[in-house]
Amino acid sequence: MQVFDQAPEGIQKAPHEPRMLAAGYQVALREVDFSDVHDKDSLMLAMLRGLALTDNFGRNWDALYDVLTDPDARPDRLGLLLCDFKNFRHRHPHLSGDLERVMLDAQRDVTTQGRQLWLLSEELDSDPNSW
Question: Is there a contact between 105 and 65 (Cβ–Cβ < 8 Å)?
Fold first, then answer.
């Protein structure tokens, strides 16, 4: 069973070939690279780039939540491919905790709107037993 066969539930391990799989399931997939994130500013910049936001993005937790839950700005079926997320969580546990709360709140709230938001962790050195 593939990840897109089921309703999104938390942060899940990205499937093999997530880009091709998402295209087949008509899920818009956006990549957010956490490999160069070292503080909140660089995190917000990574989100800005990954979500293709404009420079007027507020770069704070509320603005990120609003972007992820805005039905006019996001497709009904959206996947965030969180690249190098496990290492980011290890390097910055407090910052990643704040980010996870925002993403999980957004995931829950878009579900109530009849939409879907998958949060997929893709690791650079994928160990099948690491997640």
Answer: yes
pLDDT digits (tens, 9 = 90+) for 48-104: 999 999 888 999 999 999 999 999 989 999 999 999 999 999 999 999 999 999 999
Give 11's DSSP letter: E
For 102, other C-beta atoms within 10 Å of its C-beta total 18
Phi/psi at 14 (5° precision):
-65, 140
106: tokens are: 């957004």
- Collapsed DSSP state (helix, strand, coil) of residue 30: strand
Matching CATH number, 3-122, of 3.60.21.10, 3.30.370.10, 3.30.70.360, 3.30.930.10: 3.30.370.10
Map out the domains of the chain as residue ranges.
3-122
What is the chain's Cα-based Rg?
Answer: 14
Q: Does position 13 have pLDDT exceeding 70, yes or no? A: yes
